[in-house]
Structure formats: structure tokens, C-alpha cells
Amino acid sequence: MPVIVAEDISKRYIIDHQRKNGPSSLRDIVTDQMDKWFSGKKDNSGFAEKEEFWALRDVNFSIDQGDRIGIVGHNGAGKSTLLKILSRITEPTTGQIKIEGRIASLLEVGTGFHPELTGRENIFLNGAILGMSKNEIKQSFDAIVDFAGVEKFLDTPVKRYSSGMYVRLGFAIAAHLNPEILIVDEVLAVGDTEFQKKCLGKMRDVSESGRTLIFVSHNLTAIQALCNKSFYFEKGRLIEQGETTHIVTTYLSKVSHKMLDKHWDNIENAPGTDQVRVKRFKIFPEYQDDLNHIDVRTPINFQFEFWNLVEGANINLSMHLYTFTGECIFNVGTQSEPFAKGLVSGVCEIPGNFLNDGSYVVSMMIVRDTSTVLYNMEEALVFDVEDYRENVTWYGKWPGYIRPQLNFSIRQTEHVVND
Amino acid sequence: MATVQHTTTIKAGGSEKDYWKDLWLNRQLLWILSKRDISVRYKQTLLGVAWSVLRPLMTMMVMVFVFSYLAKIRSDPGVPFPLTVLGGLTIWTFFSSTFQQISNSILINSNLVSKVYFPRLLMPLSSIAVGFVDFLITFGIYVIMTIFFKHPIGWQIVFLPCFILLTFITSMGFGLFFAVLNVRFRDIGQLIPFLVQVGTYVCPVSYSGRLAHGTWFEKYYNLNPLVGIIDGFRWCLLGDESYFNPQSLYSTAIISFLILILSLVYFRRKEKTFVDHI
């Protein structure tokens, strides 16, 4: 029996090119209007600045009770928009969705937590925000505290919590929601491995009790572990649906491999904000010019260049390297330093004999005052590392995300003399 | 688990039908959000709740000094000047603080707007709580002051709830309008404190509305819905000795209701797009 039926869902956004960043100020609107009046034209130039963007286009699907649906696709494929529509945060431009049963969505861990309130108070606050009644929260209170492991800190304001505790408490509350349909967005990206396992386990429990789960993640491993069916979105369209293993294979094969060099010459259309704009992000392996064949022995350099538009801003870069299935391998950051207006360039080197063979994804963050993310260029580069082995007789797939050469030696420590 | 089968239909304009029902179903959330605002208010302050007592008392003293002692403005015959001021302040502060809280309510809760659904009207509604608690405290101070000045409270006090309700309607009307604008244009954040500051002098807070009586601009003056509210509130507390022109109440009532209805319509039309502008 279908619990969710979506018919012809589309969502249109109007992008305002002049002010793509942040809220507009009244002055902009007034001056725009003045310009229009005084230039006397019934010009369309004002409209030329505006562009339609279809975040979702003609999406149809139906989800049965007990299905565990994984949603895959690139950034900007419409996954988040779909979740927002399903959770009623925004309305579709056209089409309709019929939902049977209580629906709860977890788009963020700890939504509405107030830093000054204690853990106990926040459980009630967050529970209420997620749609639990006071009695439901009381009933699951002990279970929530236990799951999060924060007994000792129940009466401490959550601003004193470590980020791990914060996330655990947030997830614990959401995990004890008892909806018939649960929507989860990428929350597993946070927390330590043990906790991630706990979350996955909890989500499996949810689905095994006959409830329906919709799960968006970049982590294909998690999706494969959890979901029986998957949807593959590309550019706002649902282009394929079916068995998870099948969809993941299609996704991996269709994904345009390799993004090795991205650059923008014009500051106007470069990605970024009014504080920073990206000029170039490229990969260049040492010793060789051929970007398409980087082998495991080659040190790899990443060069990231951006325009700093704020005089004296304290800036550092933070780079994440992911496997192609979405597991983070590492995160490195530079020192924070003040920079004058102008171009700033950062270079990171991954030594040779460190990565394994396979595809890797890089994202780069520009951070101000070591705390505010000014711009996060997600999935900015994608590159392949190719296998090279010598003096071995085994050619199977080398296990592991990385393949570092470490000091690992063997020697004879005792001779057994046999007469 | 809900035993009743629960069906939701999502489509453009679809939230319209069940809006008021949803609002009612979410009343527990309203209560919890209000409680949050109140309990967070004086966290990490030295004086804590004492601020709610000190602020009106100090303001009253300054106003009395400036208006009565320096500017030699007279209060209504038979009414001690401090009571005129404190009576005015009690209701004006209730209006101005709820008005400000409502205007900022959507922005302050923007993290909720982009992550969960509930009728957005809950946010302005819940933000009234803090102002109301402050109002009760100031009112308590007022009662103590009447004992001190031996000015009895008369039968007029029975009308007090009407004026409190009118204040609520007026602040909601203005507040909702600015709350919507505030999401779209951050200029409003600059404008609101300024409006409140101007209002403190334009409205008969620390003087009696009698000063405008008989002048050529009286009829324009009375168009301000707060004139009727403040003079009327004071009349409830101080009795017939305090000046109150019931005619100003007509404009108050009509204008306040009209603004509330228009603002509600405006708010309901715009709330769906809040998330796109935050």
C-alpha cells in the first residue's frame, strides 16, 4: 500500500542575479525602482537579471509502507528541495503529494536547541519542535538520555556540551520520534564511528518495525546498508528508481568523472560570497603533466586561489578529502592569517604513496576567524588515482581507503642452528 | 502512535485549509517556545529578574525629573506625577517590547523556519510572553506605588483587561507587518528601535493626553491608536481625575483592528516564502 504518492512535483526558484548573496536591502529596491522610472523605459533589463531555476521538475513516485528509500544525486540535483517539500517547509510550485500517516523529518540534528538551556530543557523543546507531545517526550525521556549518554550533563546548559554530545543528544531525541514516516538528511555525516553505527542501527529498527524511511546521503555505503530502494536525481529530475544496488551502480557509472581544474577569470561570476570569490582550484601531480594518469607513487598538489574582498580578514583554508562513496578520509587546515584585499593562494600536497587507487573527491572551505565558514566549495574536484605495483605477485584490489608506505620492516632476530 | 489515520496533502497553496487547525494542534509548542523565551531572558546576568523591576523604576524617575521638575509639565489635577508616568510606562513598555519582539520573531527563529514546519504565526505569538511577564511586574510596581501615594484604585479598573487586549491587538498588528518586512529587508532592524524611541515622546507616555486637548492638531493626534490606549489605561488605574477622551478610543479600536486584519492577511501571504529569504 503506498503511503506517499507524488504527482508532477515541480519547484521553481527565481534567482536574482544582482543580489545572489544575502538579503536585499531596501535601498537596492528603491534605487532600482528609481532607475526604472527615470530611465523612462518599460525595460526588461530588470527581468533579465532574474532567472528561473527549476530545482525539481515533474517528479513522480510512490512509496510503499515499510520501504526504505535512499536518495542519491549530486549537489543541486534537487534532493534537499524534495525533502523540504515533503517536510512542508516549502511548497511545490506545481503538483501534489498525498501522505498517509504521521511524518517527521530530521533535516538537522538538534533543531532549535537553545545554548543557554540545559540538556533536560532542550529535550522538551526540541521534542516539541519535532512534533512530539509532552507525554510522548516524558515516556521516552529515559531512553533518550540513555541513548545519548548524557546522564551526568542533563542539567548543564548545552553550550557547555562538546560537539559530539550535542549531536548525540539531538539524534537521540529524533530517534525516539515515533512517526510512521521518517525523513533523514545526511545527519550521519557527524559524530564518531561508534555513534554512526548506533544511528544506522536505530534507523534500521525504525524500518524493520514497518515504518517508512526516506534517507538522503552522499554516503553510498550507508545507503546500500540501509535502503532497499533508491531514487537517482539529476538536475531536478528523478531519472531512475529501483533496487538500491542497481541505482548505486548506475549513479557511479553516470557520474561525470574527474574534475581536475576549475577556474573563473571574471570575479563577477566566480562562485563565492561578497567576502570571498574563488578564482581557481586545480590539481597538479608532481613529475608528470598527464592529469589523467596519477599513480599511487605521485605526490599530488592542490592549488586553490581566491579573491579576498575584505581588508585584513583572518582567513584559513580547510580541505576535506572523501572517497567516492562519501567517507571522509581526512580534513586538513592551514593556519589562520590576516590577508589584505586581493588574490590569496593556498597549496596542499598529498605525498606520494599515500592514497590508494580509486576515485577521490575534494572540497574546500574558506573560513574566517577560524569559526565562520565563508564559502564551502563542495565536491569541487574529483580525481582518480591509478594503481602501480612493482615487485609483487598479487594484483587484487588493495584494501583500504589509503595505501601509505610506512616504516614496516622485517628482519631475522634469531638463528636456529640445526646440526 | 496515532491510531487515527492521518492524511496530508501537499500542494501549492495546500497549507491554507488546515492552517488554523494546525495552529491549534501546535498549542503545546506555543507554550514551550514562550517558556523558552522567558527562561532564557536573564540567563548569565548578574541582577537577573531585578532588571524587570529596575528598568521601569529608573525610567520613571528620569521622566519625572525631566518632565515635571525641569520642563514643569503639570499632571492632571489630583494625580501625582509619578503615577501618571508609571501608568503610562506600564502600558507603553508592554506595547513597545511586544511590538519589537514580534517584529524580530521570525528572524530570531530563522533556524527553525528553515528546518521544521509549523504554522509560522506561532513565532510572533510566542514572542509576546516575555513582554507580558514584564508587564505584570511593572504593574505590580505600580500597585505598590499607589499605596505609597495613597491614590485609591477605583471601579474603572474593571475595564483594564479591555485595554490590555487592545494593546495586544495593536502590537500584533504593527508587529506582524514589520516581521514580514524584516525577513525581506534587514533595514527594518534599524528602523524599529528608532520608531519606538519616537513613540515614547509622541504618545502620551510621560504626560497626560490633556495637553493636546483643544488644540488644532488634536484630531490628528487622536488618530494614533496608542493615544486612546495609554490615556484609557491610565483612566482605569487613576479614575476620573485622569484625562481620557473616549472619542480617541473609537479611532484606536477601528485602526487597530483594521491593521491587525491587514497584517494577518499580509503575513499569511508571505509566510510560505520566508524560508527563501532567510
TrEMBL record, chain A:
SUPFAM superfamilies in the record: P-loop containing nucleoside triphosphate hydrolases
ABC transporter domain: residues covered: 40-260
GO function terms (MF aspect): ATP binding
Pfam families, per the entry: ABC_tran
Keywords, ordered alphabetically: ATP-binding, Nucleotide-binding, Transport
Similarity comment text for this entry: Belongs to the ABC transporter superfamily.
Protein's UniProt name: Lipopolysaccharide transport system ATP-binding protein
Automatic annotation (TrEMBL), chain B:
Principal subcellular localization: membrane
Coiled coil region boundaries: none
Stored InterPro entries: ABC2_TM (IPR013525), ABC2_TM_bact-type (IPR047817)
TM region(s), chain numbering: 49-71, 83-102, 122-145, 157-181, 248-267
One Pfam assignment: ABC2_membrane
Keywords: Cell inner membrane, Cell membrane, Membrane, Transmembrane, Transmembrane helix, Transport
Subcellular locations according to the entry: Cell inner membrane; Cell membrane
Ranges for domain ABC transmembrane type-2: 47-270
Membrane disposition: Multi-pass membrane protein
PANTHER family given in the database record: INNER MEMBRANE TRANSPORT PERMEASE, TRANSPORT PERMEASE PROTEIN
Family of this protein: Belongs to the ABC-2 integral membrane protein family.
Protein name as annotated: Transport permease protein
Taxonomic path: Bacteria, Pseudomonadati, Bacteroidota, Cytophagia, Cytophagales
